[in-house]
Every structure is written in structure tokens, then in C-alpha cells.
Specification:
This protein has one domain. The protein has ten helices and no strands. The termini are far apart.
Amino acid sequence: MRVLAALLAAYLIGAVPVGFLVGRAFGGTDIRRRGSGTIGATNVLRTLGRLPAVLTLLGDVAKGFCAVALPSALVQGDERGVAAATVLAVVGNCWPVFLQFRGGKGVATGLGAFLALMPWAILPAAIVFLAVVGIWRYVSLGSLLAAFGVPLAAMASGYPTPAILAALVVAAIIAARHRHNVLRLVSGTEPRLGGRASA
């Protein structure tokens, strides 16, 4: 029962629609009807500006961390339970029950979740993300490479198998949520960081 409660809590915390709430607070807009249609920090940046984007980013990272840290206390060291909670935190962000299952792409929430689950695997992935975004200014490409860098770093760091599997599942979810970005990257039409979205 405690494991089920922990998993439900992980999903519900991950499902808190931070970007949507920030959009409502800054201008009363439904962020899902602007730009890329997602509630993530990148879309908030392109449609509402820097401060709302920073608040969205910090909120998504914080909820990802809490969605793993709090359920971990319930499952009391159950590695599989904590790994499952990590995946469900990202699932909640991507498919939130509060927004008819239309959410974000899981990157910032995944960052927070893995900071709680296996922080040492985050550092090399973060370096990859910053390097890609700094050089080419493609947030989507940096996110994809970082997402798949987490399970590789987890294996190299000796984290337990359930945590590595969770990282692989999350990377697959993030890749699936970025499928349209991949097509735009291939066609050369993907917007770079700093560009404004059309209304």
C-alpha cells in the first residue's frame, strides 16, 4: 500500500502544471495555445519572456525533485519503487491529469527527479546540454543528448539497475515528446534559443 501511495504521489506532484499556472499569472494566457503548445520553460520563454520562463524552470525542477524525494520516504529504500516514482514524475509532467493529459516534454521535471535519484549522473548530462545550447542554441537537441547521457552516466557511476532502467525509460519518453523537434532539426526549421514564438 505504501508503494502504491508513493507512486500516486509521484505522478500527482509531477502533474502540477507549473508552466500553465505561470502563464495564467503572467497575462492570463493559456500557454498551450501559444508557441509550441507545451507548458515547458522553453515555450514560456518564447511567448512570455525570461522571468516567467525562469519561474517555470525552477518550479518544474523542484516538483521533479519533490516527486522522488517525498515518495522515497514512503517506500523506505525500495530501489524499484523509487525508480518507478522517478518515471511517474516525468509521466505526470508530460501527461498531467489536471490539463486533460496535455503537458510538457519532461526535461526539467526529469532533471529534478534525477537530482533526487542519482545526482552524480546529472553533472555530465548537464555539461552536454550547456555545451550544445551554448554552441548551437538548440534547446531540443541539448535536451535529447542530455536525456540519453543520464543512463550512460548512471552506468559509469555504478548506480543500481532500477535507477539505470528508469533513466532509459525517461530518455525514451523525452525522445518521444521531442519527435516533432527532431523532424524540424532534420529539415533545418527548428527555432533556436532566443527566438520568439508566433502568437
